[in-house]
Write a sequence for this structure.
């Protein structure tokens, strides 16, 4: 999975799970 700066905070969440979603 790609670790973007958005998902980088969670690190385990794939890109489809936006950090903007909160979860």
């Amino acid at each position: 999975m790609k670790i973007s700066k958005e998902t980088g905070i969670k690190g385990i969440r794939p890109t489809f799970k936006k950090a903007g979603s909160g979860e």
